[in-house]
Structures are given as structure tokens and as C-alpha cells.
Amino acid sequence: EAGVVQSPRYKIIEKKQPVAFWCNPISGHNTLYWYRQNLGQGPELLIRYENEEAVDDSQLPKDRFSAERLKGVDSTLKIQPAELGDSAVYLCASSLERVQYFGPGTRLTVT
Amino acid sequence: GNSVTQMEGPVTLSEEAFLTINCTYTATGYPSLFWYVQYPGEGLQLLLKATKADDKGSNKGFEATYRKETTSFHLEKGSVQVSDSAVYFCALEIKAAGNKLTFGGGTRVLVKP
After folding, report:
1. Which of B43, B93, B99 is the closest to A105 by Cβ?
2. What is the mean pLDDT of residues A85-98?
3. Contact check, Cβ <8 Å, B100/A48
4. Tens digit of pLDDT for each residue in B72-109?
5. Is B46 an interface residue toward A (CB < 8 Å)?
6. In chain B, which residues have their Cβ closer than 8 Å to the Cβ of A90?
7. Gap from B58 CA to chain A (nearest CA, Å)
8. What would the pLDDT profile of A48-71 be if each residue is shown by its tens digit?
9. Rounded distance between C-alpha atoms, residue A42 and residue B107, angstroms
10. Pairing between β-strand B23-26 and β-strand B44-50 as defined by DSSP bridges
11. Given an 8 Å threshold on Cβ–Cβ distance, is B43 in contact with A41?
12. By CB neighbour count within 10 A (0-12 exposed, 13-18 middle, 19+ buried), where does A17 fall?
């Protein structure tokens, strides 16, 4: 069974540029999460989807971050414009029966 | 609020040594507890979990017991291998909070041959 797929794995952009990350969860997993992991820290939840509905986006900085999961399967997280402090690893996870499975992450560097 | 505190690393050990990583938590509600591991260059993987007090989670020689009285979930392994070198994250989840995982800061473990 394929795991959670994320792309790209690495991204380097200049500040004020837009960037987008893509995630394809494990087949059959209705719940999808986006986390941000700063260097040397644990992941922090940005947004959680149940199917196509964002049920918890309280930690998502809505002035510059947006996310969508239009058909309740894959998802895109966007930052526009990016700031230096957005440099981090962005993790996607999907869950079944309360166990979350994580993708490899996208490492974003904003210069 | 909910929070997880882990011992800071890095923890450096010799092969076959005993490993303990301390984890304590505060939670509003009755959490499930998890240990995740992140090997170099890879994503987070679930190592073990426990969903109620006195449960013991175990996997790959690692163990952790859910201690409600001390709000702890310490990770132990009796004989580490070089391949256990990784970053270990303790986490809690409250079902009433939508299964949101709250992670500790991670503990880097380096096992030398």
C-alpha cells in the first residue's frame, strides 16, 4: 500500500514569492492534516480536513496561507507571499482509526 | 491547554546500551499517547501508542507505559543499535479535540558502534 505522497520534497524561493505544496493521502483515509515543523521542534497542526471540509483551521495564518481539498482526496497548501519565517518542513498526514500516517514532507527555504 | 515535554537531546549512546527518553504531558481530557520516530531523511513514523492508563505500547524492542498518576509516557529500549539513531517525538491526542496531535520538541538519539 502506498504511503502519503508529497511534492515537491524541497523548495527554495525568494521572500514575497508564492509557493504551493501538494499531498496525496493514503487511499481510503478521509482525514487529512497539514503540519509545519520548524527546525529542532515538533510538528504543529495548521489545518485538518474531514473529506473536503476544513474542520480545524484555527492555527492557519489566513492572511498568507490557504489550503484546499476540493474532491476530498488530494490537497494543496499555498503560501502567498512567503516570508523568511516560513522556512520549515511542511508535513501532510492522513489518518484511519486515530492513527496518523505522515508523508516525507516538503522542506521550504525562503531566502 | 495541552502540552508535551520531552528531555532535550542529543542523547549519545554506545551500541547495546539502555535508552530512556522521558516524556511528560499536561492535557485537558483523557489523551491517547504516542511515540513517533523520524529517521534521517524520512518522514515521521508511528513507533508505538497507548490509549488508556497502564497500557504498555511496544514495537521494535521499544516500550512505553501510560502512567496517568505521573502524567508520563517514557520510552525505553534495553539494547540500542546503530540503526536506532533518529529523532523521537512524544505526542498526545485528545479525541474531543478532533484527534489533533500535540508533539513534544523531539529528542535526537545517536548510537555509536
Report:
1. B43
2. 92
3. yes
4. 999 999 999 999 999 999 999 987 766 788 999 999 99
5. yes
6. none
7. 15
8. 999 999 999 989 999 999 999 988
9. 10
10. unpaired
11. no
12. middle
